[in-house]
């Protein structure tokens, strides 16, 4: 089986696709994650980060998610200020 390396990962080639130009492009198999599993990872990470930042459990998952969003927005504003000063 042919494998393509990308981003430090290996992906099996499961076929070929032909472009209008005649060029063939490999079709690779990429495992997908369900929205539910993605949300579970997000919530686990938010809880973990909240505990690290505040030294306590969040009162709710929403509190942890809000804290994470606030940090991201703060970092984004800092980055925009730095870009405007350059």
Protein described:
Helix content is 52%, strand content 22%. With 86 residues, it is α+β, with helices and mostly antiparallel strands. The protein has a three-stranded antiparallel β-sheet, with no helix packed on it. β1 and β2 (9-18) form a beta hairpin. α1 packs across α2 (61-85). The radius of gyration is 21 Å and the shape is elongated.
Secondary structure blueprint with pairings:
Elements: E1 3-6, E2 9-18, E3 24-28, H1 35-54, H2 61-85
Antiparallel strand pairs: 1-2, 2-3
Helix pairs in contact: 1-2
Q: Class by helix and strand content?
A: alpha+beta
Helical stretch tally:
2
The share of residues in extended strands comes to 15-25%
Q: Radius of gyration, rounded? A: 21 Å
Strand tally: 3
Main sheet summary: 3 strands, antiparallel
Which strand order do you get reading across the main beta sheet? 1-2-3
Shape verdict: elongated
- Spell the H/E element sequence: EEEHH
Oligomerization category of the chains in this entry: single chain
* Percentage of residues in helical conformation: 40-55%
Straight-line distance between termini: 50 Å
Overall mean pLDDT:
93
* Unreliable residue runs: none
Compact description:
This protein has 86 residues and is an alpha+beta fold. It is 52% helix and 22% strand.
Features of the shown structure:
single chain, 86 residues, alpha+beta, 3-stranded antiparallel sheet, 2 helices
